Amino acid sequence: MRPKKSSDLISATGLIKLMTHTLMGAALGLAFSLALILCNPAVASLLNNGGSQAAIVFALTLVTTFAIGATLTGVVFILTEDKQS
């Protein structure tokens, strides 16, 4: 009988891997939001007419969404790596 091994997600290296996934998602969300603002004139005009905080709220919403998605994907990747090794 194999001894029960704790998950790699709980260790310090697992948390660093998870934080790396989160930061990659946040950077990707920021790049996507800025590209969308610059390349799509409809979005740019909506943000111009939306007030002073509209662009910040738009960018932070995309950054948060991408960061949460990348974090959940990172959890799945880390747990899958645990099962394979």
Summarize the model shown.
The chain has 85 residues and is an all-alpha fold. The chain is 80% helix and 0% strand. The chain crosses the membrane at residues 54-79.
Q: Write down the overall mean pLDDT.
A: 88
Quote the beta fraction: under 5%
Which spans have pLDDT < 50 for at least 5 consecutive residues? none
Number of helices: 3
The oligomeric status of these chains comes to single chain
Q: What does the overall shape look like?
A: elongated
Tally of extended strands?
0
How many domains, as an integer? 1
Provide the gyration radius in Å: 18 Å
Classify the helix fraction into a percent range: over 70%
What separation lies between the terminal Cα atoms?
A: 16 Å
Largest sheet, in brief, is:
none
Structural class: mainly alpha
Order of helices and strands: HHH
How would you characterize the overall build of this protein?
There is one protein chain. The chain is built from three helices and no strands. The chain is an all-alpha fold and 85 residues long. The chain has one domain (18-84). Helix 1 (12-39) packs across helix 2 (41-49) and helix 1 packs antiparallel against helix 3 (54-84). The longest helix is centred in the last third of the chain and has 31 residues, at 54-84. The two termini are 16 Å apart.
